Structure formats: C-alpha cells, structure tokens
Amino acid sequence: MNIQEATELLNSLLSQTDKKSEKKVYTCFIRTLSSLTEKDLTESQSLLINEKLAALNLMVPTENRKKHYSKKLSEFKEFLKNEFSFTTEKYYTEIGMAYGISVGTAIGLSLGVAIDPVLGTSLGLSIGIGIGMVFGMMYGARQDADAKRHGTVI
C-alpha cells in the first residue's frame, strides 16, 4: 500500500463516519500522510514507508475502528520518528513542558519546605511548577525550531 492508497482509504472512512473522535483520528492520519508527500523523500525512504503502510493492514475490517486506526497512527508515527527522525509539530515543546513541570515540582517543593513547612509547601509548589513549565516550553520550542529548520517536522 502506498501513501496515495492509504489517503484514499482514510478519506473514504472519514466520509462514512459521523463520530467526531473517529474523524479526528482519520484527519490526523491524512495530515501526516499528506505532509509526507510534500517531503523530498528518496526512493528508499518511499519504499520503506510503503512497506510500513502495507504492514499496518489498514484495510482489515474491525469492530472498533477508532481504536484500531488510532493505534495504527501511533505505530506509524513511532516508525517515522525512529526511522527518519520525523516529528510532529510542537513535539519537543510538549515533552519539554512535561519534564519542566516534573523538575519544577521537585525543586519548588524542596525549596518551599526548606523555607516554611506550612505556607512554603504550597507556594514553592506553585512557583516551581510555573517556572519549570516555562523553562521546559522554552527549551522545547528551541528544539522544535531546530527540527523545523532541518526539515524533520511532518
């Protein structure tokens, strides 16, 4: 199965459903595939992508289509990340924000307890989460800008 056939299949599934959550999965899958067609892929890269699409068995009928295609989309994105270093837009920002929140929580809580065990806990926690999230988002945005500059964003 190539990119064009997969896009046509997903477009037909999109037109058949009325469920908003299913439409969201199909639209995201179609957007990923269309961004791949805009990339300047080599013949070997195109062949690998086509083989992966064939291995995903997208044409197999399932009872829970949303779950099935959501799982296949995640698997396909993971393949693109591991094989070609392609990431989605704001990928690093989301990861940086998560790491920033966790590190900021730990630092803010420890500093807050050291200053005042009662009031410092809540104050340190809230300030630590906020500052950690901001620094994580800044770092992630810089990584996303680098990925966009290198052309690895799909």
Question: Which tags fit this structure?
Answer:
about 80% helix; about 150 residues; 6 helices; mainly alpha
Question: Concise description?
Answer:
This protein is mainly alpha-helical.
Q: Write down the domain tally.
A: 2
End-to-end distance, in Å?
20 Å
Shape: elongated
Which residues sit in consecutive blocks of at least 5 with pLDDT less than 50? none
Strand proportion, as a percent range, falls in under 5%
Structure write-up:
The mean pLDDT is 89. With 154 residues, the chain is mostly helical. It has six helices and no strands. α2 runs parallel beside α4, α3 (43-55) runs antiparallel to α4 (65-84) and α5 packs antiparallel against α6. It has helices spanning 3-16, 20-38, 43-55, 65-84, 91-115, 119-150. It starts with a helix and ends with a helix. It folds into two domains: 3-84, no CATH class; 91-150.
Secondary structure layout:
Elements: H1 3-16, H2 20-38, H3 43-55, H4 65-84, H5 91-115, H6 119-150
Helix pairs in contact: 1-2, 2-4, 3-4, 5-6
